[in-house]
Amino acid sequence: MSEDQHITEVAGTGVPIPGDDIDTDQILPARFMKEVTFDNMAEYLFYDARRDDDGGERSDGSRASSDDESDGEFNDHPLNRFEGASIAVVNTNFGCGSSREHAPQAMMRWGVDGVVGESFAEIFADNCKSLGIPAITAGHEDVVALQEWIEANPDGEVEIDVEKETVTYGETVIHGEVDDAMQEALVDGIWDTTALMYSNLSKVERTAAELPYIEAA
Amino acid sequence: MSEHTLYDTVWENHKVTELPNGQDQLFVGLHLIHEVTSPQAFAMLEEREHEVAFPDRNFATTDHIAPTEAEKRERPLSDGESEEMLSALERNVGEHGITYFGFESGKQGITHVVAPELGLTQPGMTVACGDSHTATHGAFGSIGVGVGTSQIRDILATGCIAADKQQVRHIEVEGTLGEGVYAKDIILKIIQKLGVDGGVGHVYEYGGPAIRELEMEGRLAVCNMSIEGGARAGYINPDETTYEYLRGREYVPEGEAFEQRKEYWESIKSGEDAVYDDVVTIDVDGMDPLVTWGINPGQVIELSEPVPAPEDFGARTDREAAERALEHMELEPGQSMLGYNVDVAFLGTCTNGRVSDFEVAAEVLEDRQISNDVRALAVPGSETVREQCEQRGLDEVFIEAGFQWRRAGCSMCLAMNDDSLEGNEVCASSSNRNFIGRQGSKGGRTVLMSPAMVAAAAVEGEVTDARRFLSDDARTVSPTDVEEVAD
Ligand code: SF4
Fold first, then answer.
1. Interface pTM, i.e. ipTM
2. Residue B354 falls inside a structural domain
3. Fewer CB in a 10 Å sphere around the end CB: N or C, chain A?
4. pTM summary value
5. Hey, which of B32, B131, B187, B225 would you mutate to test ligand 1's pocket, going by the most ligand atoms within 8 Å of its Cβ?
6. What is the whole-number distance in angstroms between the Cα of residue B407 and the centre of ligand 1?
7. Domains contained in chain A, number
8. How many Å apart are CA A86 and CA B368, to the nearest integer?
9. Which domain holds residue A25?
10. Segment B2-15, tens digit of pLDDT
């Protein structure tokens, strides 16, 4: 990956994912984490919520797994209705619970390039930053209005401006907030922290050597 | 901003430099690896042709997918995906020279159980793991943070994470725990008071007489659930209890070296002059055991409290969450949780899967039988825990009572192995999350509680006050007491 991946704005049609405290177990159920790559994660995004009640569970009560053919029927979950969307719009404490990067990976692979929400769980926001997905927070009323607007305008464009910290749709501009570290990382194109920190390796060695619990190499 | 707290000192000691994005580059003193979140990180590392920067500071084991039935641990594992994950882990740690505690080692188990008991976790360290419950390690006065897979790649390649410093909230826990009330109840109480997102932007420093009284295993349970309160980390300043626990453990130096190490441990404690961003006091005098009634760990009540009504909550989000919870749990406001039917009893996990947890559960189960309608699993947090329990004959108490005595792993905490709830079963669980679907069934219902309460629920086939099984003169609560409160 290069260091010049500046992300200043992301845009596209929206998908509302309403609900507070949506945890990563709902976003990406644990049973689909049994794969050694993230390649197929989009298929498992909100797996249970996107299928009818008996979805994911066979008549004998056993559970569907990723290689199971007898998946439940798709229901009217927004992810089923807003195929092709790029901007997810969520409510409070989105992505709480497990630290699994599988959750934002699945969203990214499904097509999400940016998220607007009332608030995000911290590890989830950190994971988004690692993946170069801007996560912007806005007030309750603004977020709900945007969710309603998307329902009425499924083909309408929603744009997140990371620098200006705004979300624009139709005639409306919402002023939101992007965490400072995320903003700088995305705008300056330095969200790939491995490359950044790798260049300080000799300093790392000095810090480590000062710690009494690190055996001298 | 906080000053002179353990968090500030440990942070400063591990800070390499400030990054251009305003974050700090922080050295990770101990990195724990398991099979679920690491394979993609190793793949990214190889893609970039990086080596592991500090192989000696990385330790791996397998927990999430580990089968807990002895015969299912034969390789290759019968589940193809699990086998693939396990082989990938073995290959990665082998290629990069990382110490691995596999099934054969006798030390395999949940990362957050294994590292403390081997003495890998020590005061004044930074600990990271691709798992949100890394907060557990804070029990020693270390800073434990859960990280995502991209950050695991960062740690492998550079020994560091890019991190934002949080605010420090000191939680002073006053009073004395009554008989049959445990560390698990303290942390559930804290989450009840401060909420599941009350800790966002903070780390929690736990202190006060009730915390000082706890043994290390209890402290581990408290710090473990910091993340359920929204805090990124939680810690307890080290003291003699910490040092005595560490003495003689495999990865802890001995003799003179121990004393030197102890000087460092003493040097990182929050000072008398520590400044906190926030201080909260909680009194646990007279507190009854807690159980969850809902679908997040903050939806929790003492046994003497009735299930709340949505309108009892001030915030709109809490009211809506309460409505969803009542519906999923099939509960009515004002009801007591005592008598709530239980189908499954699950003992174990990184919260409550340690020797003292099984000891107290065994105390309840001694000379008793579990209900015929209950399926009960005792899953040690590590093989070391299992061995120690077996040496004390605890396995027999569980088996005679009707529990299945299993091998170590995460098991039904998140059901990535074969252990899972079915349909809408209700599980009395010593784990840390009661999210819908968490235990492997979308309709499944989880009631979080202490190990003693799980054992008692297994005996009665319903939620019951475990204290009546523990002592003749302990305070107990019955459903009629709760109705009085409700009126
Ligand atoms: S026991 Fe549960 S919470 Fe702990 S590491 Fe395993 S899955 Fe996570």
1. 0.92
2. yes
3. C
4. 0.93
5. B131
6. 15
7. 1
8. 58
9. 9-190
10. 999 999 999 999 99
